[in-house]
Design a protein that fits this description.
By secondary structure, this protein is mostly helical. The protein has a domain of about 160 residues. Helices cover about 60% and strands about 10% of the residues. Strand 1 and strand 2 form a beta hairpin. The longest helix is centred in the middle third of the chain and has 27 residues. The termini are far apart. The relative contact order is 0.14. Keywords: Coiled coil.
Length: about 240
């Protein structure tokens, strides 16, 4: 009898697994999560957290081009900027490829989506950097099939370019808190001797760039992901700032 009782107790203890602590930060909280080591390894929890939190933002840095000075700098430093982009891409690619995440369909799919996002973001940024000097590179880009209006405008005569540029500025003004300022700036740039470069900035950054960016599929960092991450833990104790 005592032998059976002992076995049952040991079995129950084994089923519960070893509870291990993982500390992690979220936007407003410092957290202590307790996970079952019989289900997940620490490396899997750490990798999943990296995917969930640390890789949730933009994966690659890119130069901001909002004025002529920015444009000329990117043109002049194009090779160095591309070299830096290539290096960062290689590092992030290796990081995601080697990331050990929890072996569930949900998290494996998030990892796959994040990897594809990296590939597409890299190609988009690489093409965009080149396009500031030579907009014709956009003609053969595979990632911006839905952005052809901007590609055509950037590779057309002045009349068509200005027509699409004006249309874009009107669209931008409707989403801006000071729409009149957006139109007045357009008219000022239109009458500038550098109007073509101003048009290139707007049509690439706010036209093609935003359009191509919207076409990149990304994992949804939403309440479902929060719930999926929290479900990896038996218990979470949180110390949060805020109201």
């Amino acid at each position: 009898m005592s032998q059976i009782g002992s076995t049952s107790k040991d079995t129950l203890k084994s089923q519960q697994g070893k509870r291990s602590l993982f500390t992690f930060a979220t936007e407003l909280c410092d957290n202590k999560g307790y996970f079952d080591e019989s289900k997940y390894t620490r490396q899997e929890i750490e990798g999943t957290y990296k995917l969930y939190h640390e890789l949730s933002g933009l994966l690659l840095d890119s130069p901001h081009v909002f004025n002529l000075e920015d444009l000329y700098k990117v043109r002049n430093d194009k090779d160095q900027i591309l070299e830096k982009l290539n290096q960062e891409f290689s590092e992030k690619k290796k990081l995601i490829e080697n990331l050990k995440v929890v072996n569930t369909p949900y998290w494996q799919n998030v990892k796959k989506q994040k990897y594809q996002e990296l590939l597409n973001s890299y190609e988009k940024q690489r093409i965009q950097i080149l396009a500031y000097s030579d907009p014709s590179v956009l003609l053969n880009s595979k990632i911006s099939k839905n952005c052809i209006r901007f590609v055509n405008a950037l590779n057309s005569d002045d009349r068509q370019m200005v027509e699409e540029w004006k249309k874009l500025r009107i669209e931008m003004s409707k989403r801006n808190g000071n729409p009149q300022n957006v139109i007045e700036e357009f008219e000022k740039h239109l009458n500038s001797p550098d109007k073509k470069d101003y048009a290139i900035i707007d049509l690439i950054v706010f036209g093609w760039g935003n359009c191509a960016n919207d076409d990149i599929d990304r994992p949804q960092y939403d309440e479902k992901m929060n719930a999926e991450f929290n479900s990896l833990f038996i218990k979470i104790d949180s110390d949060c700032d805020g109201p």
